[in-house]
Give the backbone structure.
Amino acid sequence: MKKALTRILRVPGDLARRLPLPEWIALAAAIVAVALGPAAVLGYNRWASRDVITVKAVQWAFEPDTITLTAGVPAHLRLISEDVVHGFAIDGLGVEVDDLLPGHAVDITVIPRTPGTYDFRCTRYCGVHHGLMFGHVIVRPAPARSP
Amino acid sequence: MSADRHASAVATRDAVAPARPAPSREVFLGVVPATARLELTRVPLLRRLLASRWTTFVPTTVNLFLFAVILLAGVLGTPVGNANIAIVFIWILWWSALMLLLVPFGSRIWCGMCPLPVLGEWLQRRALVRRRLGPPAGRTWKWPKGLRNMWLVNGVFLGVAAFSGIITTRPWATAALLGAIMVLSTALFLLYERRTFCRYVCPVGGFLGLYANFAALEVRPKSTPVCLAHKEKECILGSAAGYGCPWLEQPTNLKRNTYCGLCFECFRSCSKDNMGLFLRPFGTDLLVDSHRGPDESWKAFIMLGAAAVYSATMMGPWGTLKDWANLRSLGGWAVFAGGLIALLLVGLPLLHGFFAWLSWRLAGRTVPLRRVFVNFSYHLVPLGLLAWVGFSFAILLPNGSYILRILSDPFGWGWNLFGTARLPWTPVLTAWLPVLQALSLLFGFVYSLDVAWKLARQTFADRRQAARAVLPQIVLLAGLTATFLWLFVG
């Protein structure tokens, strides 16, 4: 353990000799707590959401307001409200989520069949500019398969 | 003796004076003698555990990891407070645990595992776990004499309290506060000796210190004669096994819990195995008639007043007050902050001063008014702490279920680590909330009355004078209790 740590950290030989093993273990724990732990958190998030498109709803916009999908390919959307109760619907794709509660992520799967542009919008009155909360889903044709 | 010689003059002063326990004849609530003690360190396992250097390192490092996650969540997580670990863990879990359990039953045990100053302490010691001999890193300056009290702590706490509406609801604000404390503490650890930051600057440390005097746990020497005969004073100067008291206290002569951070360093440094961990009756240190001062009186006013203001702001029906605290408009916030500071710094002290003056008059002006004012301020501690207990019940019971959700999705990113992320918000035992709050207040009121009577007899030599002096204090405590009852259940 000590040898591995000193090699990884490139610690000078005399310091490596002076420090007892428990101190090295403590140092490893401290590094995990301060740096590796948070890095692992971010890494896990990246891995967990690798195939997920996150759509944030805030007064009075969606972020992103344009989503690009591929016809026939399932898309996983994670809907998150960051302030008040919003709703979410994609006209023409049969998607309707009644309540997006603040802090509650809602995961849905969409399989768009027909290429084209669809509108999505907030379906819960969420304040004075509720009517401006909309965006677009662009469904591109699936790439042609080579024979 | 292989001890470091960089001990502070503060630490060595009065080192050989015998410890002065609470008056031996006092009996709390007519049932529990003030001298009753149960030595927990008679259990060999606990004794070994406290003497181990890992006992401090492990919980502190776990908390440091949580702290790093909380900082991350404050910056990158959802801004929705109840879906972000920064708000749920700090202001629901930690705060409630502090007021309901850690302070009443564990004194300043939180300070022993607090992650905020730990980077500074590691840098200062140039070691993580082991006892490193030799001079510490940094400047090791001594804290200015004029600031060796709670006044600065009171000021910092008020500054934070003025922004409480923002800090307790916005994850970024919580992260900013904790980050600022960590940066400041690290800087001060490199400039000043030992745990100067924790003792004289930390905004949490101030009220922990005051309320620790009510706590049912203490670290004290097992035998004063052993300390007196032991000339090396390892607990102050340090030994090969442990550092000198990081809190600049004299463990040989501890009278009160105010500045004992339960780091258990004295358990390690003492070669005589003469330090013990004791259970004791609540409120014992409130009767110790030394080291009292107006700085601590004001701390008592500030904490009592803050409990009332937070109860009104967070649980009261006054929307305007919430808007002011939430910084909806700068003018409104200025009214809130100005009112808060005026009430806590001037209003409550004036009220207390009036009743102290009445006591002084009724008792025949036989002692200085200042002594009456300061001494009687300590009976506000039980009521103040129990008011915070009532307030914490109102935070924990309705909102505690968020903790389970947060464990699975700490950032509000849609994770579900343990399958609890979709748990619905579930208030627990809220039907009993008014009862629990009323009982807390009742206990605080009765205990405060008991302490007030003991303080009166301590302040006035004559029993009849004490009886007359305590009458206005009973009125004051009854009025304060009624106010809290109204705020909680009215």
About this structure: Chain B touches chain A at residues 54, 57, 61-62, 64-65, 68-69, 71-72, 76, 78-84, 119, 122, 127-130, 409, 411-415, 421-422 (CB under 8 Å).
